[in-house]
Design brief:
Layout lengths: L1 H46 L9 H78 L20 H50 L34 E3 L4 E3 L3 H44 L1 E7 L6 E7 L8 E7 L2 E2 L5 E2 L2 E5 L7 H13 L3 H18 L1
Antiparallel strand pairs: 1-2, 3-4, 4-5, 5-8, 6-7
Length: about 400
């Protein structure tokens, strides 16, 4: 299509040039006719006995016009041949474009047919898999004679069995840990009930007044009374399992269950961190592109080796070279002892681009005199834009 358009534009230019030459030839022919009439008059004067003057400038111009006319005719012939060739080329390219369009249409039709065939094959495969799942291997008359052959050592079956055994071991470990936790909780509950019943029984038996604290003396602290010996018990050392949310005694099965649960949580946290990092990179890229398109500067963040403060390198979209960059160091705000926060500052660091006379004048005016970095950046943007549009 593009080649056909170029051929058409060339044919149009050739036609315009041919028309212009035709107009020039017409003007030459008019002037030549006038010159011929003048020459006829001069011949008549010679016949009457008047001496003919020397050749006039009009005769010279007439000869030049005749030569130009011949050259123009030759040029017209060349242009007509070129125009015919361009027209034939354009027609051929138009035919090629039409053939390409037909081929593209045929390919689209073929792709659509293949897509429908693929969908039909997928539906057929799904139906066959469903039949195999139901045990319908053969629906013909020879269904009774159909035999199913299975591999003695099927890799897929071995892999599935290994995975099932691994999952079963994990579930068994978790189940065992839960059983131990439940048994421990039941034992603790029974122990608490026994302690409560022992205390109630001791309060009802003779001599239980010995278990009661002696009367308080005014001004004296209460005495320390040890608990009864049959009530004291040493509980088994227990720990709080954060994964399961229960108190339990460490053991091999419990440790395996905790490790399994913790591994799962670590995997979930890693996936969440990866998603956060992906979203963060996308947001940062979008923010940088927006700054470049809106404010006209590409911003790259770095760090000052001496002070450790963040630095920002600005490159204008109107800059003529890549080394035309400005480096700013940002000092973050500080919080004083009274809690008051002082505003941050921006410092323009020395660079080859900012050391030129023109840049120094702008820096002295906007940054030095008015202390306005945004004004300096805006004025620099307008200066670079004006230079680019003027060029």
């Amino acid at each position: 299509a593009a080649a056909a358009a170029r051929a058409g534009s060339r044919a149009e230019l050739l036609a315009r040039e041919r028309d212009g030459l035709n107009r020039v030839i017409a003007s030459y022919e008019t002037e030549l006719a006038n010159n011929r009439s003048s020459a006829t008059n001069a011949t008549a004067a010679d016949a009457s006995g008047v001496v003919a003057p020397a050749r006039s400038p009009d005769d010279v111009r007439a000869e030049e016009a005749t030569r130009s006319l011949r050259a123009a005719h030759a040029r017209i012939v060349e242009l007509e041949s070129e125009l015919a060739s361009a027209t034939a080329t354009r027609a051929g390219e138009r035919d090629d474009a039409a053939a390409a369009a037909r081929a593209a249409h045929e390919l689209r039709v073929e792709v659509e047919e293949l897509r429908r065939a693929k969908e039909g094959a997928a539906r057929e495969i799904a139906a066959l898999e469903a039949r195999v799942g139901r045990g319908e291997y053969d629906t013909t008359k020879n269904a009774a004679a159909t035999k199913i052959l299975h591999f003695k050592e099927n890799p897929a079956a071995i892999a599935n069995e290994a995975k099932a055994e691994k999952d079963l071991a994990v579930v068994r470990a978790e189940c065992e840990a839960l059983r131990e936790t439940v048994a421990r909780m039941v034992a603790e509950h029974e122990q608490q009930q026994q302690m409560h019943m022992a205390m109630v029984g001791a309060s009802l038996t003779p001599g239980s007044e010995n278990l009661m604290p002696p009367p308080l003396t005014p001004g004296m602290p209460p005495p320390l009374v040890p608990p009864p010996t049959h009530i004291m018990a040493t509980p088994a050392p227990t720990t709080y399992n954060r994964a399961l949310g229960t108190m339990q005694t460490p053991g091999p099965s419990v440790a395996e269950a905790e490790i399994t649960v913790l591994k799962r949580r670590v995997a979930e946290l890693e996936k969440r961190e990866q998603r956060y990092m992906t979203v963060f990179k996308q947001k940062i890229s979008t923010f940088r592109e927006a700054c470049y398109l809106i404010f006209g500067f590409k911003v790259d963040m770095g760090e000052d080796r001496g002070s450790g403060q963040p630095t920002f390198t600005l490159r204008s979209m109107f800059a003529s070279r890549d080394d035309e960059a400005m480096v700013f160091r940002v000092n973050p705000p500080k919080v004083g002892a009274t809690g008051n926060e002082t505003g941050g500052t921006v410092e323009l660091l020395p660079a080859p681009y900012t050391s030129t006379d023109e840049m120094r004048r702008m820096i002295d005016m906007y940054v030095g005199r008015w202390s306005s970095v945004p004004g300096f950046v805006a004025n620099l943007t307008m200066e670079l834009f004006n230079k680019q549009t003027a060029a």
